[in-house]
């Protein structure tokens, strides 16, 4: 059993590691890692008072917390999180001098509302917990700290309301987090992938959100929240399909307006998933589905398109996906160039060149616009992916294939579970974001 | 046991029109059709109540669990095999007749084997999920389909091509004739949804409301009447017999003039 000084001597003597011996009664030494500590704070609250105080030992005892350290690894773990080791004779005290990064709440850009709160969480977990606690003063509130990733040891906070949350869900979450075997965990989206039970998931079973109002609402509904250091996005679970279709605006608008908006959202979802499939099957298999006039005008607009309809659909959808992807990846001030080039030039010219029909351009834009209607981004990405299998099966089997494919998608959704809760189920009966009380909103389609 | 029980009964009522039930009923319209419908409603309601009550005494157990626990193995094993086969055949009839319909009306160029294979694959995959998943799927499918079914009903009753005199003729002429076995057995098919409780009893969730059982004969009788009488109203007493799929042809005769999809047959078949 060595002393604290022995443990400190075992730590690597790099430039970032500062050892300071102070020539005061009691033989005080300070050890800390420079990059993670706030030098100003150490100066102001440790060095200056210790140097001037008549009894430095009692000052240290009052301002620092006492901590017995068992090994140099433990010491390292404390120091690297921004603690200062104050060694007083053989006794060790810790002083929290961690630097805070980015604790300013951001502006709501990802999930915007018209007339809701306009600020989001910051990138500092402790500050975020403060924001949430400020909005949610209920006595049942609990906060537990966790560490994620073998190398990064990212601090995370698990928040829930002990009076409302389901203990089975909490136990499940904790056991899943304990089983995470990754070196680097940097974002909550990555964490979702890690604690998801499926190896290859398609639909998100947890909400990623940076809106404090959504978090507070979910807390009040008995859900658990995971905040992580370094990202403004928190993870909300369990989440079912309807949660992804609800925007925070639904809470702030009158009842019937909300109902109408949610209904429109489901129609948009239906369009985003099935329109390409329906286009292919109507053109290539069952042109008699619509009125004769409609069929004729569709055929007319396709008169100079040499390819099969599925080639046309794939080409157009790929261009649209590429454009969406490009406008995400490009720096913001170049994004408008991409959309101009894509939207105006490509759409207009492709139709005039006879590569695609004008009906196809309308279909594509309807699909793309509709898929942007879905409020939570992760879900909208999933919807983007799910239309391609449907397109494939309907280009082989027509409308029949489209219906069978849709049936399978609904079946897959119904088979998912989010922490034991059924993902897609009619008449959930659980309070939702869209409507304050119980609601029965139905699923996608057949 | 809960609302899902009623969903499975409804499901059976909904699919009756695409298999042979209308054909059998229309062929027997001179053999006591209407008394047969009434009789089968009464009989099936009795069976439904009996079966539901019997299964309620065994909470959270499927039929196979019950049989295994209560009966010696040499009785339960053949019984289960027999039941499994009859289920298999029942499902097979629906799938095969539906793929034939698909080939005839929607995909004339596609070999019927392909269609049947795709349907078996999809149905098999869905059926191999957990029981609860199947129930959720059932609920979603039913809730989304009912508006369309009501639309078809409304259109078929409201159209001027529906000849109520023919219906009245068919009903009144043979009202006092003793029904034959074919009519009764075909008509009781509509109510057989309660048998699915043998499996779904495993997942009891929520409270069972027996009062809703009173709705079963009412809705069942209405569905039966629709199944048997609307084709007569459209095609006439003699005409309706000549069709193989009387109901599909009936649906094809209905038009939604101002709707997006003009021919109701698509709405009908794709559900």
Summarize the helices and strands and which ones pair or pack.
The complex is a heterodimer of chains A (446) and B (271).
Chain A lengths: L3 H7 L6 E5 L6 E6 L5 H14 L3 H8 L1 E2 L5 H9 L2 E6 L2 E6 L28 H11 L5 E8 L5 E8 L5 H12 L9 H8 L11 E3 L2 H9 L3 E5 L5 E4 L3 H4 L4 H4 L2 H30 L7 H10 L7 H21 L2 H21 L5 H16 L3 H39 L1 E2 L2 E2 L24
Antiparallel strand pairs in A: 1-2, 2-4, 3-5, 4-5, 6-7, 7-9, 8-10, 9-10, 11-12
Chain B lengths: L2 H13 L5 H7 L5 H24 L6 H8 L2 H33 L6 H16 L3 H28 L5 H10 L7 H8 L8 H4 L14 H21 L3 H4 L3 H8 L10 H7 L1
Helix pairs in contact in B: 1-7, 1-11, 2-11, 3-9, 3-11, 5-6, 8-11, 11-13, 13-14
Report what the structure shows.
The complex is a heterodimer of chains A (446) and B (271). Chain A has 16 helices and twelve strands. Chain A is α+β, with helices and mostly antiparallel strands and 446 residues long. Chain A folds into three domains: 4-96, no CATH class; 125-239, no CATH class; 250-422, no CATH class. Chain A is elongated, with a radius of gyration of 29 Å. In chain A, 37% of the residues are buried. Mean pLDDT of chain A is 79; it is low at 429-446. By secondary structure, chain B is an all-alpha fold. Chain B has one domain (3-270). Chain B is built from 14 helices and no strands. Chain B has helices at residues 3-15, 21-27, 33-56, 63-70, 73-105, 112-127, 131-158, 164-173, 181-188, 197-200, 215-235, 239-242, 246-253, 264-270. The longest helix of chain B is centred in the N-terminal third of the chain and has 33 residues, at 73-105. Classes of the chains: A alpha+beta (446), B mainly alpha (271). Chain A: The chain crosses the membrane at residues 224-242, 263-285, 355-376, 388-415.
